[in-house]
Write a structure and sequence with these properties.
CATH superfamily of the largest domain: ATPase, nucleotide binding domain
CATH architecture of the largest domain: 2-Layer Sandwich
Strand content: 15-25%
Distance between the termini: 41 Å
Oligomer: single chain
Helix content: 25-40%
Strand order of the largest sheet: 5-4-3-6-9
Bound molecules: zinc ion
Radius of gyration: 23 Å
Number of domains: 3
Length: about 325
């Protein structure tokens, strides 16, 4: 493979890939900014930039009132598909090379009842629908990125021991999709993917430039963490480094849907909060929640969050975070 292989246009292990990524994440940039950020010689940067332009991956832009050119990604030179699979929802998005979402499609999914083939066939048909709506040719897709709510063996693109996804353990997700599409497919844990997005485009993008470290915690139906150390995602030996939702809390006997007792998720996950909210409503400890219940409103995260900002449902969250071991566990993880 050459450094300009169009099958692998964003391979960051190459100099060309590094320059492309810096321009994608921080562009438009002047040549001198790229020299500063890469530490490469001006002549080297300029040779690589010329070649990236000649294969159509970069373009020039002259800012208003300025004379010198800035470089930016030729955002429509290719496209990528992003797949976000949750316990109850599937979203598939078509993005340009600057990771801007152009179009998306999705629908409900039930990972306990639907097996991997059924779900992945839906991913394929959603992606085809997006290609068709955008009028893309067969070689327009540069890659597919897939976030799964499970520990993932990243190098093989397979989920490993997903706690509540029957049939998915070691299912070859990446190769299943690679048979359908002629582009590379990357599969990772969903919270790792969120952490990468925050590193490259979001709240941690300045930190990432300095190769900083941060922890992203996702608290939804499940609870997971994405760990970034010195600018790189840390997956751990079995791809489960951030899989904190099923760590046991000492002494807690709440039954978890994974079959074990006392998991963090069973105590502080979305379902657990809903159960606590219903109890608080019925036992008259929260007029706000009792009223929501009487209106047959779902006592879900949204209702709880709204109540918490009004100070009305905070007791449920207090209850969880004052649980002696949940607080300790969260502190241990963030240390
Ligand atoms: Zn569990």
């Amino acid at each position: 493979m050459t450094e300009f292989d169009l099958d692998d246009p964003v391979n960051v292990s190459t100099t060309a890939g590094r320059i492309f990524k810096i321009i994608r994440d921080h562009g438009p940039l002047y040549g001198k900014d790229i020299v500063r950020r890469t530490g490469l010689a001006k002549s080297t940067v300029s040779a690589y930039v010329d070649r990236l332009m000649s294969v159509g991956l970069l373009r020039e832009e002259i800012p208003d009132g300025m004379k010198r050119r800035k470089l930016k990604v030729a955002e429509s030179a290719g496209y990528v598909v992003g797949v976000a699979l949750g316990q109850s929802h599937l979203s598939v998005a078509l993005c340009d090379l600057e990771a801007e979402i152009i179009d998306s499609v999705g629908g409900p999914v039930d990972l306990v009842r639907e097996g991997p083939e059924k779900v992945l066939n839906r991913v394929v048909s959603y992606a085809r629908e997006l290609e068709q709506r955008a009028g893309l040719g067969p070689s327009a897709l540069f890659g597919i990125g897939f976030g799964l709510p499970s520990p993932v063996d990243y190098s093989h693109g397979v989920p490993v021991n997903p706690p509540v996804m029957p049939g998915w353990d070691r299912f070859p997700v990446a190769s299943f999709l690679a048979q359908e599409f002629t582009c590379p497919v990357f599969v990772d844990n969903d919270v790792n993917v969120m952490a990468l997005a925050e590193r490259d485009k979001g709240a941690a993008s300045d930190l990432a430039y300095r190769k900083g470290s941060f922890l992203l915690v996702k608290a939804g139906t499940g609870i997971g963490a994405g760990i970034v150390i010195n600018g790189e995602i840390y997956r751990g030996a079995k791809g489960a480094a951030g899989d904190i939702g099923h760590i046991g809390i000492d002494g807690d006997t709440t039954l978890c849907r994974c079959g074990n007792a006392g998991c963090l998720e069973a105590v502080a996950g979305g379902r657990a909060l809903a159960v606590r909210a219903r109890a608080a409503a019925r036992e008259g400890r929260s007029p706000y929640l009792a009223e929501a219940l009487s209106r047959e409103e779902a006592l879900d995260a949204e209702t709880l969050a709204r109540g918490a900002t009004m100070g009305a449902a905070i007791l449920v969250l207090d209850e969880v975070f004052s649980h002696k071991n949940v607080g300790m566990l969260m502190r241990k993880i963030s240390d």
